[in-house]
Design brief:
heterotetramer; A: Alpha-Beta Plaits; 4-stranded antiparallel β-sheet; disordered N terminus; B: alpha/beta; 10 strands; binds adenosine-5'-triphosphate; binds magnesium ion
Chain lengths: 319, 231, 319, 231
């Protein structure tokens, strides 16, 4: 206006040591505040813990299912059952012949002995298979068509053409049990994906909701803080620390729940692992995953707190 | 308008405050308070006394005109600067505004904690402030176990503790007995003597008359009379 | 004290029509209050919805797994593989002989043809089995020992004794694949039980926590209500209605989530069902179960509200 | 002790109130108020005025002695009966105690809603009460948009609306200007004329003196003087 001098700027305290000390104090006082309502803290932590434990557990499950199904990944989409009188040398010739086709990407021969081995291993008949005097299984050639020919009609056409070979008794598009396993795996994977999305949503909602209600609860406190000159950063800090603590407690509970569940599941899993020998053992005790939960929990708590606080804090102005 | 602004601490230029309800809490207010002045704000219930004080502490923003405090135009103050402005303006509220889950000591310490003051200094200052309002014995209790007047005094201690250059008080003695009222007024006078600028809203006409200081009388949002207007 | 007359008792309003009208009013005003903070209501309902949808979905899963495994329930714990030269008539004689033992509760004969059929159905080899010229599988007699003899040693002893028969080539304690399926089923059942317990806990905690924070939030309101002479029942009522509404919204979201998940899972399930023919079709669309969620949700909300309110309400006394 | 108790509305028999902190808010208080009496309660800040009123409204329970209200021994009142007792005792608070998420109308209606009164009757009564305190125009606004004095008057309207036989007021005019204070006192006098028993805690010595009613003076939790004691 009329040539007034620039107003003095405000003094701000920026001593890094004071800053650090204040943060440590705040972390502790947030902990103190939580400990003064132990039941509420426990309830919130338990809810977060359950919400974290479920995706954590599911992650392990999905991993294991994947591990089970990779054996079958890239399995052939056409199986050629060779005639009974074809020996292994002839079978290898058939394989090479088929392999030269432009519409075939890869082939693999399963000899009579291999087929029986695989059958023994997977069917679960075990020793009982040895009762069979003579190996009744024919050699099999697994065929993977090139990418461009993977639609069912193309595959069916290839199968029909191959059927014309004298040595090939039956060209079957996909083994039923490979299809089944793939279908089961797909269903479980999709189901767990849906579950994981729902649970991740739940974790965010729970933390956000808890902090929203906390902030409403402490609206008066926030107003008074603002009245006496508290900066946004200062007012936000206790909430962030509470978010971190909640996340940490929740993560601890989640780890306990997972470990506890493992303990409860242990004998069933042991039995399963024993039955499948080295083929399929649930790899549940994953220390890296547990450490991830213990680090991710507090980070999630911090993130949720930040979101909730930022959304609500500026709306609360002292009256 | 060409006066010496060096000593002007609070200045209203044709200020109006229209609330979202459409009601005008203040209309066309011009006002100047020099550094070290002590003035009383009177007027009927709903006259706009609290509104005027709230504009100075930036609890509301003017809808027209300009408010200057400590040579800063509050209209131009960024949101980031509001807390620092409030640290320079102590305010005592009609309804105390204490935190009920913190002890009296911690309530009074709040402005210092917020400003990042050291522990020892906080201890010293809070004790001194509580002593001034006669509540040193009650430092450990929680506000619920205080009488109305005692809560009022805690609010006063909280406003004094950071020694702000400007002190606003909204009916600081409304819930106090005559003797305590006099003591608190004594305290305000002492502060004024060391240079603090005070603006006190009150209904206590007797007290105002007795002290013989500047009186600004509001009526329906306008300044009705001002015993110390320099205009 | 000095013969004072009995103090007058308080007048209480007990007109049933007024009472009903007040309840309807309260239900509506609770709804109105919730609609004034739509985001918060939605968040709470979403959390409850997810928490309800998961046990609901798991219930379906467990049911289906049970359905799958009942085929194998009560399966024999000893399988007698008969010699290759034993025909079906002889096999039946062997079965009857074994059946007469005191330590055997039940026997079942699987003829050569039945064994092949079952193998075809379960192994997934399908048509490929027909390539095998001659049925290589021996007849099998399944043996279930009496209850008192089901410990492994007792069973092993029986097996050893039966092995002595000329017609019995191999007495195998439990078929591996039966064991495996039982183990998988047991693992899944135990896992889902753990999950269900955790999720039930989560639902209770979430509703309790939400209402606890709500009550803290409205502490001032409750105090004022008590100040002006509101009875406990009167003050509790809005919370109960809010609990019911929350539960209802949560249940609706849960139903939508389940139906949505089914939709997403539909093609995988279709494929699976197709592959297993009538043996194994996921029976997911369960209108009774969904109706149960829609009724149970509000009841759970009411219960959670009642618990939380009763615990906290009497502690809040006007200052 | 052998007086006619028929008309005794409030009676304290050697009452003491020791707070959990160990502080004695009241000690050995004997007091009787007859039906239709109007008395003032004075004393320094922390003398025990609010404590005495809170005992009558059962916001606290006496730790020694007995309090009788409307011929009921409050010590023997079951928890179930407390709300019904409070409906017979209107109370005006130092800090208003309004609900900030409800309109002025709904705040004033609360005692009637709680008692299950019909809609039309509530409308009529609330309007009448708001009219008496001069706030009929503000019935739709929320308490935040009211000045301190206006909030005080909403609190007064809420206490009046259910026409309780006993009315307790804790500094009802602490935040009001002298003119409004006089009007509110007028209102209390009107109520007293139709038989309501009033007990009013106040610091306004002038007003008390002017009205010439019974004055009970407390000092550190004891009755110091009582201009109307029948003893
Ligand atoms: N937030 C608000 N929204 C709408 N109107 C408001 C608001 N705050 C105050 N008012 C109105 O503005 C007018 C002035 O209010 P203010 O609080 O400044 O009065 P006051 O002089 O402090 O009165 P009192 O002595 O009763 O405290 C009043 O009529 C009030 O109703
Ligand atoms: N809940 C409580 N716990 C402990 N002490 C209390 C409690 N409430 C009041 N006191 C103490 O009891 C004494 C009397 O308090 P009371 O509120 O009755 O005073 P008062 O006469 O109303 O004072 P004022 O005029 O300041 O309102 C005070 O010293 C106060 O500190
Ligand atoms: Mg005011
Ligand atoms: Mg008091």
């Amino acid at each position: 206006m009329n040539g007034r001098k620039r107003p003095p700027s405000f003094r701000r305290n920026r001593n890094p040591l004071t800053w650090l000390l204040r943060h440590a104090q705040m972390a502790l006082s947030a902990l103190g505040r939580l400990s003064r309502s132990p039941l509420g803290t426990l309830m919130t932590a338990a809810v977060i813990g359950i919400a974290l434990a479920l995706p954590g557990g599911l992650h392990l499950l999905v991993d294991n299912v994947r591990g089970l199904s990779t054996t079958w990944q890239g399995a052939a989409s056409i199986s050629l059952f060779l005639a009974d009188d074809v020996d292994d040398v002839q079978a290898e010739r058939v394989r090479q012949l088929v392999d030269q086709r432009a519409d075939v990407a890869e082939t693999r021969l399963i000899s009579r002995a291999d087929a029986l081995d695989e059958f023994r291993r997977l069917s679960g008949f075990g020793e009982a298979v040895d009762l069979i005097d003579e190996n009744p299984l024919p050699p099999v050639v697994l065929v993977r068509p090139v990418e461009s020919s993977t639609e069912s009609e193309a595959v069916a056409r290839i199968a029909a053409e191959l059927q014309a070979y004298r040595e090939i008794e039956l060209a079957q598009v996909d083994l039923k049990w490979v299809q089944r396993l793939a279908a089961i795996t797909a269903t479980i994977e999709r189901g767990t994906l849906i579950l994981a999305v729902m649970l991740a949503g739940a974790v965010l909602l729970i933390i956000g909701n808890t902090i929203r209600l906390e902030i409403q609860n402490r609206q008066h406190e926030i107003e008074v803080m603002k009245l006496v000159g508290g900066t946004h950063a200062f007012i936000r800090r206790p909430f962030l620390y509470e978010g971190i603590w909640h996340g940490l407690f929740g993560a601890t509970i989640a780890v306990l729940l997972i470990v506890g569940s493992l303990y409860l599941l242990d004998d069933s899993v042991q039995r399963l692992a024993g039955l499948y020998a080295s083929d399929f053992a649930l790899d549940l005790a994953d220390p890296l995953g547990l450490a991830g939960i213990l680090i991710g929990g507090p980070l999630l708590g911090l993130g949720g707190a930040w979101l909730a606080v930022s959304r609500h804090l500026s709306r609360i102005e002292p009256q | 308008m060409a006066r010496d602004h060096g000593a002007t601490v609070i200045r209203f230029d044709n200020v109006a405050k229209r609330y979202p309800t459409g009601h005008e809490g203040l209309s066309g207010v011009d006002l100047q308070l020099e550094a070290g002045e002590m003035a009383f704000l009177t007027g009927h219930s709903g006259a706009g006394k609290s509104t005027l004080l709230r504009l100075i502490a930036l609890l509301e923003r003017a809808t027209r005109g300009q408010v200057w405090v400590n040579e800063r135009n509050l209209n131009r103050l960024s949101r980031r600067d509001v807390p620092f402005h409030r640290r320079e303006v102590g305010m005592i509220f009609q309804d105390h505004r204490l935190l009920h889950d913190r002890s009296v000591f911690n309530n009074v310490a709040l402005p210092l904690v917020v400003a990042g003051m050291g522990h020892a200094e906080i201890q010293r200052r809070v004790r001194a402030a509580l002593d001034k309002v006669g509540l040193l014995k009650k430092e450990k209790v929680f506000p619920v176990s205080l009488s109305g007047g005692e809560q009022q005094r805690v609010g006063i201690a909280r406003a004094l503790v950071s020694k702000p250059p400007v002190l606003l008080a909204d009916e600081p003695t409304g819930n106090l007995d005559p003797e305590l009222s006099r003591e608190i007024m004594e305290l305000f006078l002492q502060f004024n003597q060391v240079g603090v600028t005070l603006l006190i809203a009150t209904h206590d006409i007797d007290l105002v008359r007795r002290l013989g200081r500047r009186v600004i009388r509001l009526h329906q949002g306008r300044i009705d009379s001002d015993s110390g207007a320099a205009t």
